[in-house]
Amino acid sequence: MEYEVKDLPAVRVAYLRYKGPFGAPIGEFWKEVFTPWQKAFGLVNKVTYGVAQDDPSTTPPEQCRYDACVEVSAEYPIKEPAKEATIPAGRYAVAKFRGTGDQVPQMWGEFFGQLHAEGKADAGACFERYPADYAMDPATGVFEAELCIPVK
């Protein structure tokens, strides 16, 4: 898998948490919960992030946590039900993803496997980054994102 190593800045985000199995249910969470909330609070056309809080290979599916996030300014007042977090600055391996939601877990697995084999993976938050002009093809379900993993 091709990737670039990039130094990314810290980002303040507002997030809603999903808890349960990874894969297709996360797409439903974005569609049915996060996106309507994002629109209701005027947070559209902003960079969004998906942050896995747990490793699904070692955490029972019903206990896996995933945060759907949107980038906000330092002065933006975050209100319930959203929470505030910071995606940490750091050096990340960044791979482009183009596909459907059900292909995301396999791509993460391949990307992690490659970085571990190369001895480059580091501890820290891993996340998906979606562009401000994010769009999903309604006919095919195909979308684009970047997969970001901390590296040494």
UniProtKB/TrEMBL annotation:
InterPro entries: AraC_E-bd, GyrI-like, Reg_factor_effector_dom_sf, SmbC-like
Stored SUPFAM superfamilies: Probable bacterial effector-binding domain (SSF55136)
A Pfam match: GyrI-like
Domain AraC effector-binding stretches: 1-152
PANTHER family to which the protein is assigned, alphabetical: TRANSCRIPTIONAL REGULATOR YGIV-RELATED (PTHR40055:SF1)
Record protein name field: AraC family transcriptional regulator
Organism expressing this protein natively: Rugamonas rivuli
